[in-house]
Design a protein that fits this description.
The complex is a heterodimer. Chain A is mostly helical. Chain A is built from 11 helices and no strands. The relative contact order of chain A is 0.12. By secondary structure, chain B is of the alpha/beta class. Chain B contains 7 helices and 8 strands; from the N terminus they run E-E-E-H-E-H-H-H-E-H-E-H-E-E-H. In chain B, a hairpin with a 4-residue loop joins strand 1 and strand 2. Chain B is globular and about 45 Å long. The two termini of chain B are 28 Å apart. Classes of the chains: A mainly alpha, B alpha/beta. Chains A and B meet through helix 1 and helix 11 of A and strand 1 and helix 2 of B.
Chain lengths: 268, 215
């Protein structure tokens, strides 16, 4: 009885400590990521906005204006681009968390896991805020209609954050053991930009192409996001459970590798 | 008291594992000043980092009720790209102390002047040691883990450090890794000799030093 209680209070105490550590890390990462000026925060919104603008212009030039199934043009692009960019940011920032904060591992209660969680919290929050500001701005300015199913949009936003976390942990584990993988991350993410349904919908493709691209979980979240956002767009061949398995699987492998190869890391 | 039980630490080298510590079972007192002696590469610093929980052993566990400092004397622990104040803020937050008081104390103790608002990478090694020492004194630990006594800074700082350390000794102790025999003789009451992954305890400091010289 008393043992159970003390274990529980120990658990509570270590939870408080871990909360304090993550809080401190998030604040420190904000400094590192955005600097002291508010210009840094502005850039977080400007980067995806610029990309949306560039691709919108490109579409104008080649004369293709309306996406399928009656989706509005700008929110169609914005949902795809912001989701893709945020996934990439969450994953790559998380996988770089340990390398750039190595000095902080000196403190007993700062673990590699905390370093990654700190960045996940910051990047995830940034994603959701940027998403709301850009699409909300679009609604106010008349470029976009409000979301058809706000609750499912919110749910999908969380799925995106968690998928980014899983991929980030996997990427961290892989680059830790095979540093050359880093060279392939840039081309990999560029490939993902063109194969994740940022600029098209699954339905537009021939069956054979659909079957291949359906392996890509990023395509799933982008399609799910649009199904939640636009009225009259149904979920077609993609599913939350597939994304869920990816999240669980990649997080599991990532954490397993971290544990297995822990001793290699601190060799220096 | 710090209890090490079956503590084993190895690193992966080109040819298999290199054992630094092997099945170490030892009780290190925290109510007295302890020195750890050993040859270069005997694993003293690794041991200190494991005690401080900055590094996990491959096997075994470390038990203690004492509040231990981070391993001091390393250049690490501060993020070089962040300013002194930002680093103080971070450390204050993870140890749950008031950061504004911490900045005041550190500024008063380490006398960094305007440098406190500059990135740590612009500091001299003496300034880094001063800010780290000041910060650890502010957080107040039961036992300070020191890797080589900070012999940095000008004589004025050294005097201040010695003064505050003497004051500290009223309520705190230290575990010190050092090559300097006179420092160990002056400061330590118990000495552990680390050799081939094993630790031997000496309550007679002179005897330990004699054996250390023969290593």
């Amino acid at each position: 009885m008393s043992i159970a209680r003390s274990t529980l209070s120990d658990f509570g105490r270590s939870l408080t400590v871990q909360g304090r550590v993550v809080h401190a890390l998030v604040l420190r990462e904000m400094r590192g990521r955005y600097g002291r000026s508010s210009l840094g925060y502005l850039w977080a919104i400007l980067e995806p906005l610029l990309l949306v603008g560039v691709f919108a212009l490109g579409y104008q030039l080649i004369g293709r204006r309306s996406p399928p199934q009656g989706m509005e043009f700008l929110p169609f692009l914005a949902t795809g681009i912001i989701t893709y960019l945020s996934l990439r940011n969450i994953a790559s920032r998380m996988s770089g968390a340990i390398e750039s904060n190595r000095g902080l591992l000196l403190y007993p209660h700062v673990t590699p896991f905390d370093l990654m969680i700190g960045r996940l919290v910051l990047e995830g929050a940034t994603f959701i805020v940027v998403f709301v500001i850009i699409l909300g701005g679009g609604v106010i300015l008349g470029y976009a209609s409000p979301p058809d199913d706000p609750l499912m949009v919110l749910v999908t936003l969380f799925f995106v954050v968690l998928l980014g976390a899983g991929v980030g942990m996997l990427q961290a584990a892989l680059t830790m053991n095979f540093p050359w993988i880093d060279y392939f991350m840039k081309p990999f993410w560029r490939l993902m930009l063109w194969t994740s349904g940022v600029f098209f919908t699954l339905k537009q493709l021939p069956m054979a192409a659909q079957d291949i691209l359906l392996w890509n979980p990023i395509l799933h979240v982008i399609e799910l996001m649009r199904a939640a956002y636009f009225p009259g767009v149904d979920i077609y061949r993609v599913s939350y459970s597939y994304v869920g398995w990816w999240i669980l699987g990649s997080a599991f492998i990532g954490l397993l590798c971290e544990r297995m190869f822990r001793d290699r890391r601190k060799e220096k | 008291m710090i209890q090490l039980r079956d503590v084993t630490k190895w690193y992966r080298k080109q040819r298999g594992r290199h054992y630094v510590l092997r099945d170490l079972n030892v009780d290190i007192p925290t109510d007295r000043n302890v020195g750890i002696l050993g040859r270069n590469g005997a694993g003293k610093s690794t041991l200190l980092r494991i005690i401080a929980r900055a590094e996990a052993p491959n096997r075994g566990e470390i038990r203690t009720n004492a509040r231990l400092s981070w391993p001091m004397g390393f250049s690490g622990g501060f993020l070089a790209s962040m300013t002194g104040v930002d680093n103080i803020r971070f450390i204050s937050r993870i140890y749950g102390v008031d950061w504004q008081e911490a900045v005041e104390f550190v500024q008063d103790f380490a006398e960094l002047g305007d440098y406190i608002n500059e990135p740590i990478k612009t500091y001299s090694s003496g300034m880094r040691a001063r800010i780290a020492t000041a910060m650890s004194l502010f957080v107040r630990f039961d036992c300070y883990l020191i890797d080589e006594i900070p012999g940095v800074g000008d004589s004025r700082f050294r005097k201040r450090f010695a003064d505050s350390f003497n004051e500290l000794r009223q309520r705190s102790t230290m575990i010190m890794v050092s090559h300097n025999e006179s420092t160990v003789r002056k400061a330590c009451e118990v000495v552990f000799l680390l050799n081939n992954g094993e630790m031997q305890r000496f309550d007679d400091v002179d005897e330990a030093l004699r054996l250390y010289r023969e290593l």
